[in-house]
Amino acid sequence: MTGLHYEEFEVGEAIDHEKCRTVSESDNQHFRDMTTNRQSLRLDAEAAGDTQFGERLVNGLYTVSLAVGLTVSDTTDGTVVADLSYDDVEHPAPAFHGDTIGARSAVTDERETSDGEHGVVTVHVEAYRVADGEETVVCEFDRPVLSLKRPDAET
């Protein structure tokens, strides 16, 4: 377990996650197959070439999932009871095959639950692509989670 317990989060804390991943065409294809999303903009080079983007896009839901995955080991691995929601999801820029995606998080809210055994922590997550030393945010959202308290902190 490498995640943080409720008491270890601090509102205002920023976390730059070291993990990143380069998205392949195969990643996008597998996600499409698993979700049966047949949107041609994702995998049809000819159709995508005629759009404002000029090339195929990575599925936005894959980008959200990847962002969560990149952040889990530093935030909730082994300490999350449940993801409560994914709020205010935005995709300010597209992600493309071959993009390397990184993530950062900021703790924006925390509160104890009425049972006194857990806490709700909200983390704002940004996923960004890195190209030529420049970062471009491709996805951002708020992720409230039900978190375990430290065993020694329970009353």
* Structure classification: alpha+beta
CATH topology: Thiol Ester Dehydrase, Chain A
Largest sheet: 7 strands, antiparallel
Shape: elongated
DSSP helix fraction = 10-25%
Radius of gyration: 17 Å
The number of distinct helices, counting runs of at least 4 residues, comes to 4
Helix and strand arrangement:
Layout: E1 14-16, E2 21-22, H1 25-35, H2 40-43, H3 45-49, H4 60-75, E3 80-83, E4 87-90, E5 100-112, E6 118-131, E7 134-148
Antiparallel strand pairs: 1-5, 2-5, 3-7, 4-7, 5-6, 6-7
Structure explained in plain terms:
There is one protein chain. This protein has 155 residues and is α+β, with helices and mostly antiparallel strands. It has a single domain, classed as Thiol Ester Dehydrase, Chain A (Roll). The chain contains 4 helices and 7 strands, in the order ββααααβββββ. The protein has helices at 25-35, 40-43, 45-49, 60-75, and strands spanning 14-16, 21-22, 80-83, 87-90, 100-112, 118-131, 134-148. Strands 1, 2, 3, 4, 5, 6 and 7 form a 7-stranded antiparallel beta sheet that branches. Strand 6 (118-131) and strand 7 (134-148) form a beta hairpin. The two termini are 22 Å apart. The mean pLDDT is 91.
